[in-house]
């Protein structure tokens, strides 16, 4: 009952005209920057922090949350239409969404993305309000060995799911894990794989890698095949909106994606990348239309997008209750709290309940604004595909370069962007999956630090990984997921030989 009263009080604060304006500005900016390769919500919040220094703290935080939600959705637009995720969490959406767009079904793909985002965001925000104390209690029980085991599950699932060959998936993953080693070792302070280049001491930027592999790599691949077998893209084929069959195939993935995204997003070291890829692999296993995966299955868009937006609400659970950011944007929001002299945590709920509950209530409003803003624009976004291919991909290269320069102006960073673009082209050319590289870079350093913490606590005893029931269970799941594709492939060959 107390939660209902607090939420009602927060809604009264969130619907004040000025706060509604802040939410609208945040949602619009988040969507706008989400569709630009390389410029995500974290960078936008960082750029706006100095501007909002003298503004109302509650309004500013509401705007930052709107940017977060808008950026999560906006990243899916270019992921679907031109295979260029605006955010790393939109990579799973690009796998099937872009195939749908090339088949003239960009409208239904964008529609299921928008509606799934609204459904997942609304359910997850309700979860944030009512379940956060319980989820935080579970998260606090996780030890470093449990986090490492969770990362192993994510690694194996991603590697085994994408592409026709698990070995190629694992190869891509290890490329990403190697890139994650570049920079200063946080435990010893020693430089690793920096080769004397000062810009590499901070490590490889996720944005640079994602934009290079997806945007630049896609542009190079399209250019290489322009006079070979030019791909005919149909901007619109059939209905621009979702059919009854699309609705039937989407609503269950929306709910499953929400159930994956919210709790994993609420875990420290969670984030949006893990649940989106887990959602994709889950839908691929459960679908009644396995032959459509890899060719444009709507379930592969609905599930990951729901997981993406549910995790956005989930990341606010540890941020508000523990002061623990689990994503780059959450870290920027933590800086926003601190610039107003506020420290997120249990005391914040007691000292500033109006601010906390006003922020939570504003997420419902931001979700509704996103749906109202983006559904009418589906037709406009789909028309991007009608732009001549040379113009479109030239524009992608310009925006990719501008985004990289805005995030980190450096000749070395631009050289890395070009290098990753060539790598992305070669991986497409030889049929290596790209997503595991980015996942390896994002989660590799987290897995390494958690493993080293677990070993330090146990004085170097590796058996500590099996002593925790949670860790042992997760490692068993990872082992089964690793072996299963090879076993199934072997059985398939055996059956084929018998036939």
Explain how this protein is built.
The chain crosses the membrane at residues 20-49, 61-82, 109-135, 147-163, 170-188, 200-223, 355-379, 391-409, 430-447, 467-488. InterPro entries: DUF112_TM (IPR002823). This is Tripartite tricarboxylate transporter permease. The chain is mostly helical. Helices cover 73% and strands 1% of the residues. The protein contains 21 helices and two strands. It has helices spanning 2-14, 17-34, 41-48, 57-82, 91-102, 106-141, 144-161, 166-180, 206-224, 244-266, 273-286, 299-322, 328-339, 346-351, 353-374, 378-382, 389-407, 411-429, 435-457, 464-467, 469-498; strands spanning 183-184, 191-192. Helix 1 crosses helix 15 and helix 10 (244-266) packs parallel to helix 12 (299-322). The longest helix has 36 residues, at 106-141. It is globular, with a radius of gyration of 22 Å. The termini are far apart.
**Mean of residue pLDDT?**
79
The assigned structural class equals: mainly alpha
The share of residues in extended strands comes to under 5%
Distance between the termini: 65 Å
Q: Poorly predicted ranges (pLDDT <50, ≥5 residues)?
A: 233-237
Shape: globular
Q: Over the alpha carbons, how many angstroms does the gyration radius reach?
A: 22 Å
How would you describe the oligomerization state of the chains in this entry?
A: single chain
Give the topology string: H per helix, E per strand.
HHHHHHHHEEHHHHHHHHHHHHH
Helicity level: over 70%
Number of strands: 2
Largest sheet: 2 strands, antiparallel
Question: What is the strand arrangement across the widest sheet?
Answer: 1-2
Counted by DSSP, the helix tally is 21
Domain DUF112: 20-438
Organism: Bradyrhizobium ontarionense
Transmembrane segments: 20-49, 61-82, 109-135, 147-163, 170-188, 200-223, 355-379, 391-409, 430-447, 467-488
Protein name: Tripartite tricarboxylate transporter permease
